[in-house]
Amino acid sequence: RQNFCPVKKKNIFADITKFAFVVEGQSQTGLQIAELFNGSYKRKDNAIEVVVKGNQLERYRLKVFRSLTIKNAPKDFERIEKLVEQDGKKAIGKETGRIGERLYYAFYCFPSEKEHYRYVFYRNSSLRKTESNELTLIYMEGNVTMDELKVMFKK
Q1: What is the pTM of this model?
Q2: Quick check: 86 pLDDT over 50?
């Protein structure tokens, strides 16, 4: 089976964050970020958690889409950054960008699990003075390649 994970240097994050629906589930087995999707942010006013599974994703060749967007929470941002960086050590495909010593964005692809590739997209906009004070984390799982994801999110 061909490795579909290499990531080209192109910022598709803004396009990816346009993709959102609401349902429930758990799928980040073996990743540090799994603890972030345990429902603890659902009751916080400064956070939006989105989960999509099932038929809504079939046309995208995805099985799971999860996102977490948090605003104005510097301590949470630092904790999430550490978890994302720990997971990044296991990635088989990656692209990252830093501002100073901090992780600004990351695109990671993880080895196949249950015949699906797993992707993590992360961006901490609070590190740029010109952007909103928020952090977005997205987890996706499916049979789609990184290049196919890029094409889908440009539409």
Answers
A1: 0.80
A2: yes
